[in-house]
């Protein structure tokens, strides 16, 4: 009888230690996962900041505004291509297929966002 009590007590203490260890392991796993995600976000934010700095520097160079407008127009066309592949119904603004209009619109958007003086480029690009 006394041996059974000791055996049950030892078994109970063993389960308690097991549950405690498993809970601690899960806590550490969650903590390490959160630290990893935080570090990844930090690295991504730094990379994005460097990319923005590089873009800003390039926009200030000769032809930078035009290159940005071309890149925006390409993304615009790509976006419509992706939309067309997912749906058979699309609505376009007036002149959506006019590349010159896209470039002018992109330059006007850049000007509106205070990305630089593009008024002379916009004036030249007006149809």
Commentary on this structure:
There is one protein chain. With 127 residues, the chain is mainly alpha-helical. The chain is 80% helix and 0% strand. The chain has 4 helices and no strands. Helix 2 crosses helix 3 (99-112) and helix 3 (99-112) runs antiparallel to helix 4 (119-125). The longest helix has 58 residues, at 2-59. The termini are far apart.
Task: Write a brief caption for the model.
This protein has helices spanning 2-59, 64-86, 99-112, 119-125. With 127 residues, it is mainly α.
Order of helices and strands: HHHH
Q: Major beta sheet, specifics?
A: none
Tell how many strands the DSSP assignment holds: 0
Which stretches are low in confidence, meaning pLDDT under 50 for 5 or more residues running? 115-127
Strand-residue proportion: under 5%
Q: So what's the overall shape?
A: elongated
Number of helical runs? 4
Question: What gap, in angstroms, lies between the N and C termini?
Answer: 100 Å
Query: Which class do the helix and strand fractions yield?
Result: mainly alpha
- Report helical residue fraction: over 70%
Please state the average pLDDT score: 79
Radius of gyration: 30 Å
Which characteristics define this entry?
mainly alpha
């Amino acid at each position: 009888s006394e041996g059974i009590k000791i055996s049950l007590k030892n078994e109970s203490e063993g389960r308690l230690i097991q549950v405690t260890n498993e809970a601690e392991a899960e806590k550490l796993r969650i903590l390490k996962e959160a630290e990893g995600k935080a570090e990844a976000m930090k690295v991504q934010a730094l990379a994005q900041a460097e990319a923005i700095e590089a873009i800003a520097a390039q926009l200030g160079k000769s032809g930078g505004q035009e290159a940005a407008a071309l890149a925006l127009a390409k993304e615009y066309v790509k976006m419509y291509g992706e939309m067309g592949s997912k749906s058979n119904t699309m609505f376009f603004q007036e002149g959506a297929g006019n590349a010159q209009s896209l470039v002018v619109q992109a330059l006007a958007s850049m000007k509106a966002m205070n990305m630089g003086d593009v008024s002379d480029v916009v004036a030249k690009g007006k149809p």
